[in-house]
Amino acid sequence: MNSTQTALQFELNQRSFWKNLTVFDWLWGSLVMLATAYGYSRYVGLMDVYEQSILVATGASLIALGWHWKEIRLLSLAVFLLSIFGISRYVNGLADAQTDFFLKFLVSSQSAIMWMSALYVLATLTYLLSFVARAEFAGKVASAMTWSATTMGLVGLMVRWRESYIIGLDVGHIPVSNLYEVFILFSIITALLYLFYERRYQTRVLGVFVLLVISAAVAFLLWYAFDRNAADIQPLVPALKSYWMKIHVPANFIGYGAFALAAMVATAYLIRQKAERGAANGLAMTLPELEILGDLMYKSIALGFAFFTLATILGALWAAEAWGGYWSWDPKETWALIVWLNYAAWLHMRLSMGWRGNPMAWWAIIGLFVTLFAFLGVNMFLSGLHSYGEL
Description:
Layout: H1 3-20, H2 23-43, H3 49-68, H4 71-88, H5 96-99, H6 101-107, H7 109-133, H8 136-167, H9 179-201, H10 207-227, H11 244-276, H12 290-323, H13 331-351, H14 358-381
Helix pairs in contact: 2-3, 4-6, 4-8, 6-7, 7-8, 7-10, 8-9, 9-10, 9-11, 11-12, 11-14, 12-13, 13-14
């Protein structure tokens, strides 16, 4: 196909896309635009030009996402309504969370996050039941629980954002500033990535694998919250008072979530491969075929690598603004580079050298441990410019 034919095909695809949009698609786009305009009109005085750009870009992204993934619309509406309800219950300050029934048991940030935690763990157990018993209904229930947990997690973050401003304008910030908050974000992003691929590949048998890593994150989150009082909202350190945080951290954790998904798919790949060689029971044969698992592993790593690369670039720009240099070989930066090189090599070996199968699956699993050390281990064992994230 020559360049003229390629351009013509692209134009036809574009026309077909716009032509296929339904009334509900346009209604969704209109609702998001109205919500974006409302947010802009109400909070424009508190935002600089960069934050205004982030708001507009977020609205546009949500429209596109809703057009391509219908389920995200219901999620967004549920999060919006529950968040508004929770925020509206605060009349006399944060003390209302102890006296108002709905805040205390449902929609305060801490209550919503506890619901998220419980639902993710229950979803893991239900996915396990579905996998072992080959029960389709249990799989549907597990999916519903995962969607519900994700909803409550997002509500928790949105309400926590408002709670920080109730404490004081100088304290208020987007809730992605410490380990407690980013573990919530990691759980949500990993779940959303899994749910997308669950719909894309029409299979729920991978749920037990992916939800295991989310449940592990939830276990750490609960320990961190109750043992270290990490759920308390604290003022930002000076280096974090930047619009860069609003885009660097989410991009980073889309990368982390995708890498975690790839590792758990790789685990399923190895189990299925062993089953095909006659060394495992028939239950493993219910997993998707190796070609599908390999494709999902590759797509997850490619997605994660793209966002992690973006996050690394944004982090360098942020570092230049905060510390006067793009790169300082801080332990966090060094290990971020190691993670980047690891997955760059993985993609190179697959795309250029044609590597497939067992070695790539093991590599994806090992890559998760490398990523885990960069994410958490550096905070535990090393110190540097990023010490504000230590345990």
